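Exercise 7b. Backbone tokens:
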């Protein structure tokens, strides 16, 4: 995805109006959000060995900034500079049966937060409803 900046943003190197929200703990604790994140990432259809570079490129090419709701935050891409990161991507993105609730292990939390933040920053229209489920108003009421 190629971005261009207006002349006033060019001097800063990013657009102040284009802010991406840092993925919250509530989102990371939402099993439906995680299920949607994993499903979207599988649709990106990258081999496990390309995910690290893909995320670094997304961060580099993002013309805006990441906000925690108050301040600018910088994503620690060293979270992906680990032994066996390829295997981590393979395992994290593996499809889960419908009856299994996805969760994030404590040691992978920031890795998942960064991945989700970058994907939502670059694909906001596609990712804005991750974790949201329609209420079923047609459900039978038990008597």
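Sequence design result:
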């Amino acid at each position: 995805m190629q971005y261009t900046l207006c002349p006033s943003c060019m001097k800063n190197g990013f657009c102040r109006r284009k802010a991406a929200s840092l993925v919250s703990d509530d989102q990371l604790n939402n099993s439906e959000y995680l299920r949607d994140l994993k499903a979207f990432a599988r649709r990106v259809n990258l081999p496990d060995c390309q995910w690290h570079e893909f995320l670094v490129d997304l961060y580099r090419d993002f013309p805006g900034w990441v906000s925690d709701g108050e301040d600018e935050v910088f994503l620690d891409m060293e979270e992906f500079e680990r032994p066996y990161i390829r295997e981590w991507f393979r395992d994290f993105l593996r499809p889960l049966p419908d009856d299994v609730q996805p969760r994030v292990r404590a040691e992978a939390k920031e890795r998942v937060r960064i991945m989700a933040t970058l994907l939502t920053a670059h694909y906001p229209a596609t990712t804005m409803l991750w974790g949201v489920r329609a209420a079923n108003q047609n459900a039978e009421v038990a008597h």
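Instructor comment: The helical segments are 7-10, 25-28, 31-44, 51-61, 85-92, 109-122, 124-127. Residues 13 and 63 are 7 Å apart (CA to CA).
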